[in-house]
Specification:
Keywords: ATP synthesis, CF(0), Hydrogen ion transport, Ion transport, Membrane, Mitochondrion, Transport. This protein is an all-alpha fold. The protein has 3 domains: 36 residues; 35 residues; 31 residues. It is built from 4 helices and no strands. The longest helix has 32 residues.
Length: 122
């Protein structure tokens, strides 16, 4: 355990040295590449204004998202009504989607708990 801690510490020291040497150049390069996205002058007031614009723009997009949701739901209802005509490829896609949902919710929960399993043991 102590050797792993020593390895981790040495890797952290190496990473911090790399950032100390190359961090400033990376920062300047990043700003130069993305200067079209920088609002001038970069003041606190401008940041607050942009934050409000983002919030209210997202708020204004809710009706469109709501409408899209119901269109998607109607499409799923249509497929469910005509499930006799369902091809094996469509069923495979649905199965993969279900597996992805399982991974996002269940496996993500396990990872969030630090890979610990809780519950009843038999």
């Amino acid at each position: 355990m102590a050797s792993k801690l020593h390895q981790l510490r040495s890797k952290a020291v190496q990473a911090s040295e790399f950032v100390a040497k190359h961090g400033c150049a990376y920062y300047k390069e990043l700003l130069e590449k993305n200067k079209q996205h920088i609002v001038q002058p970069p003041t606190v007031e401008k940041c607050q204004e942009l934050s409000k614009q983002l919030f209210y723009t997202r708020l204004a997009s809710i009706p469109g998202r709501y409408e899209s949701f119901w269109k998607e739901l109607d499409g799923v209802k249509h497929i469910w009504r005509n499930r006799e005509d369902l091809k094996i490829e469509d069923a495979g896609i649905a199965a993969l989607f279900g597996l992805e949902l399982y991974a996002w919710f269940c496996v993500g929960e396990i990872v969030g708990r630090g890979f610990t399993f809780t519950g009843y043991y038999v």
